[in-house]
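Please think about what follows:
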Amino acid sequence: MSEGSDPLEVVLVSLRDADDPMALHERLCFEEATGLPDLRVVHACEQRLGARELDADLLLFGGSGAYSVLDPEHWVRALLDFLLRVVDAGVPAYGSCFGFQGLALAMGGEVVRRADHTRMGGFPVRKTAAADADPLFGPLPARFEVQFGHKDWVTRLPAGVTLLVTDDAGHNEAFRVDGSNFWGSQFHPELTRHRTLDRFRHYQHLYDGGRGDEIVRQITGSVDHPEVPRVLGRLVELARARRRARG
């Protein structure tokens, strides 16, 4: 059966308010990075996640400019529970930024708010030795730049994951859940520097901290590495192969 007549069921779980302009922006960024048009978007703050989403071929969890995984909102707690269900179900999935933090927290890791240590823009990272054999991160060079936008930090990884990307300061930047099809990264593989600048301009009141000019320079002076979005492209191919194998 051709992929055109039987397209993948891909769901972007949005962790933004439905009326946030960056919700559409995020969908477009993921569509550009994956090469998949018309992603189905589910807003976790408005809709309960359940069996229909677990039946998807691929789940994507994005960032959230206005929310934190440490917030007490009921939907955030429900999301953390759902992330564990995704791991158990074996659904191919990727958590970017908030999704990465949520997965780490749900599995028993530690996330800390550092409002005075916001990281925004392009920064260098490096693969761990374990990443060389990873189907998503293996083809990346030893060092590369990626786009960040966060002030919550995963300070301790949970048990049962393999660290794939770190930096010279030893931060936890990406991992895979062992024995699963779930990956996550603190950085945004779906963002280019121009898209990050869009994001910063919209959320500047939350992330500026009096460092607006410095952050803009950090964003615009960064380098987009063509291999970074291909991490998501390889996950799409993994999801296709899994679908074919399941018939």
Residues 10-114+152-191+226-240 form a domain with the Rossmann fold fold (CATH 3.40.50.880). The longest strand covers residues 119-127. The helical segments are 21-34, 51-54, 74-89, 98-106, 193-207, 212-220, 227-246. The two ends are 10 Å apart (CA to CA).
